[in-house]
Structures are given as structure tokens and as C-alpha cells.
């Protein structure tokens, strides 16, 4: 482990000319380590048998090119390879006592084990003392090679977008997006490109590929949940909303979107439970009350439901969902003219209100009821 980390350290010193910190026996724990200053190299040794295999090398320089980062990472396993070759060569070239020979072979075995453990790409992350996560050298090198490829196409990618050649931009970025190794920025570029190109199916495919491999934000999960809902993929929508809310329980937008999915498929009790969580969000209060009122009406609590809808109307007379909910209530009670008037008012306020055109067709008797 020491030679492996020193391999990183030597490369970092040559490439950056700056300070380097090496940790032996920990993943960056200075508090429980002995500090050994060696000029611009400092070694932190943690004498713990439980963490004997742990090690970390941190260059002080922050602005390191992708190429130099790859070289820096490769030099750790390379040091193990050189060590293994040297000690095995010494066994062949020099006569040594049996005990010394056993020690040399053990050192070579340790170096070879370290070489393969770090050079073979493994996706299993480990947690550093700082709280961030990292991967072994081989997997990180793969990620950086993918990032290097991404950096090469970015000028042409940006040029395509500037000229609104979104399909060409998508065709350029799509082969670079590798969900198991790509950094999240590449995923986001691929997603935006698919959106601009109108390839919503690919957006959903990219998202499903990224979820097991990429740490997305609560907002990103919520946006994709909404896209799934619009395309009537309700189960996937619920999964995305669940992820959004688990990351940020205060994401009101995700809770409201989830509630509306419950409302749309007739899970009125679940819808009310979700909407009730958002009653303390004043910017969404009229919308929330309009929909929770409809859910109550659907559960035969008509008086309370109409009270909520009327309260929403008092708060915001131009809330489209007030009129959508009233229209559905009037259709349910057979008052078609009142329903149509409210649906038309809803569409006047928001022509994109959920299935409002279908509701108007239904009120006109052109299709079956909602």
C-alpha cells in the first residue's frame, strides 16, 4: 500500500510541482494519524490493523488536466508492478536464504495483489473520511477516459446547438453517454439534447439507464416523473417522484405531482394525503385546494370538497384547476352546461391544463365521460 500511494505521490509532485498528502491506513483521517513531514510530501500514518489496506493520495493542486489525472492514477498500480517485477527478479538473480526468499515472495505477492485490486475496474464505491465517495484507480481511469472523449466533442456539440441542429447534437453526445462510467454532466447533456430534439422516448431511456449509476438531484427525478406521467407511464412516474421525495422530503413540486397522479387514477385517499402535506405552501395553496376538493367530492364528501374549491377560488380567481375541478363536479352531477362553462374558463386561463380538451369534448357529448 505504501509503495502504491508513493507511486501516486511521485507522479503528482512531477506533474503539479505542488504539495502532496499521502495517507496510509486510512482514507484521509488526519486526526488519528501520525504526520511525517518530508518537504512538499507529507505522510499520515494510521496504525490500525483494521484499516491496513486503506490508502489515499491527495495532491494539493486542484486544476489538474484530465490527461495528468489519468497519469497520476496509473502510477499507483505501476509502482506495484515495478515493485513486483523487481522483487521477483531479485529472487532469480541473487542467492537468498529461505527465510529472506519467503519474505521477498510475500512482498511480491502483496504488490501483485495490490496491482490487480486497483487496476481492474471495480464499480464498488468506498467512502472517504471527508464523506465523499471514490472508486479504485482502474474504474476512475475509465471514467476519466470517457470524460476526455466528452471534452473532445464539446466544441462541435456547442456549435450544433448554437445553430439549432439539435438532432445532430444528440447523435454526437449519445455514443459518449455510458451510464456505468459517465459523469453526471454527460447524462445531463444527453438528456437536454434529447429534449431539444423532441426525443422524449430517449429522455426516458437515458433516465432509466442513469438511475442505478448516477446521483441525480431531487429536481431531476421530479422532472422525469412528470415526463413519465405525461406519457401515461404512471408506475415509472411514481418511482421517480418517490426518489425525488426521498432525497428532499420538502420538495413540494414532487409531492404535488405525485398527488395529481393519484388523483388522475382514482386513488383519492392517497391524493388527499399528499395534498394535505402541501397546505402550508402559500404559492401552491389555490392549486392544492382545488384538487384536494375534487378528491373529497369523488369520495362523496361533497360539502367539504366544494368548500375547498370555493376557498381556492377566493385565494386565486384565475387558478385554472378551480374551474377544471368544478367542471368535473358538474359533469358528475349531470349539469353539462355548467360543466362546459367551467371547462372553457379553465382552457381560457391555461390551454395546457391537464386533458382539458378531452374534458371539453366529453362535455359536448363527443366521447365517454372522464
From TrEMBL:
The chain crosses the membrane at residues 70-93, 99-120. SUPFAM superfamilies: TPR-like (SSF48452). The keyword Cytoplasm does not apply. It comes from Flavipsychrobacter stenotrophus. Keywords: Membrane, Repeat, TPR repeat, Transmembrane, Transmembrane helix. TPR repeats lie at residues 218-251, 320-353. This is Uncharacterized protein. InterPro entries: TPR-like_helical_dom_sf, TPR_rpt, Ycf3. Pfam families: TPR_8. PANTHER family: TETRATRICOPEPTIDE REPEAT PROTEIN 6, UDP-N-ACETYLGLUCOSAMINE--PEPTIDE N-ACETYLGLUCOSAMINYLTRANSFERASE SPINDLY-RELATED.
Amino acid at each position: 500500500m505504501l509503495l502504491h500511494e508513493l507511486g501516486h505521490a511521485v507522479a503528482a509532485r512531477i506533474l503539479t510541482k505542488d504539495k502532496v498528502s499521502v495517507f496510509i491506513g486510512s482514507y484521509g483521517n488526519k486526526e488519528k494519524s501520525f504526520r511525517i513531514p518530508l518537504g512538499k510530501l507529507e505522510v499520515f500514518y494510521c496504525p490500525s490493523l483494521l484499516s491496513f489496506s486503506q490508502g489515499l493520495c491527495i495532491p494539493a493542486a486542484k486544476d489538474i488536466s484530465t490527461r495528468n489525472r489519468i497519469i497520476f492514477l496509473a502510477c499507483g498500480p505501476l509502482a506495484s508492478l515495478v515493485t513486483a517485477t523487481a522483487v521477483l527478479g531479485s529472487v532469480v538473480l541473487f542467492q537468498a536464504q529461505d527465510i529472506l526468499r519467503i519474505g521477498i515472495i510475500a512482498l511480491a505477492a502483496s504488490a501483485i495483489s495490490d496491482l490487480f485490486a486497483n487496476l481492474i475496474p471495480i464499480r464498488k464505491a468506498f467512502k472517504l473520511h471527508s464523506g465523499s465517495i471514490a472508486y479504485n484507480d482502474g474504474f476512475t481511469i475509465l471514467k476519466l477516459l470517457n470524460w476526455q472523449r466528452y471534452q473532445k466533442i464539446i466544441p462541435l456539440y456547442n456549435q450544433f446547438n448554437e445553430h439549432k441542429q439539435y438532432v445532430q447534437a444528440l447523435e454526437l453526445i449519445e455514443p459518449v453517454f455510458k451510464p456505468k462510467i459517465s459523469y453526471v454532466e454527460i447524462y445531463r447533456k444527453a438528456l437536454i439534447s434529447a429534449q431539444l430534439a423532441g426525443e422524449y422516448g430517449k429522455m426516458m431511456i437515458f433516465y432509466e439507464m442513469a438511475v442505478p449509476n448516477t446521483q441525480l438531484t431531487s429536481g431531476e427525478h421530479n422532472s422525469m416523473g412528470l415526463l413519465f406521467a405525461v406519457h401515461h407511464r404512471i408506475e415509472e412516474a411514481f418511482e421517480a417522484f418517490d426518489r425525488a421525495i426521498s432525497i428532499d422530503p420538502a420538495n413540494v413540486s414532487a409531492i404535488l405531482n405525485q398527488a395529481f397522479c393519484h388523483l388522475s387514477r382514482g386513488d383519492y385517499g392517497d391524493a388527499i394525503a399528499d395534498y394535505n402535506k402541501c397546505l402550508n405552501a402559500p404559492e401552491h395553496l389555490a392549486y392544492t385546494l382545488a384538487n384536494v376538493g375534487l378528491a373529497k367530492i369523488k369520495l362523496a364528501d361533497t360539502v367539504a370538497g366544494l368548500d375547498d374549491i370555493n376557498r381556492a377560488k377566493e385565494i386565486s380567481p384565475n387558478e385554472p384547476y378551480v374551474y377544471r375541478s368544478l367542471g368535473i363536479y358538474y359533469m358528475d352531477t349531470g349539469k353539462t352546461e355548467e360543466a362546459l362553462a367551467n371547462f372553457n374558463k379553465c382552457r381560457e386561463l391555461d390551454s395546457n391544463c391537464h386533458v382539458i380538451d378531452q374534458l371539453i369534448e366529453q362535455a359536448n357529448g363527443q366521447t365517454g365521460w372522464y
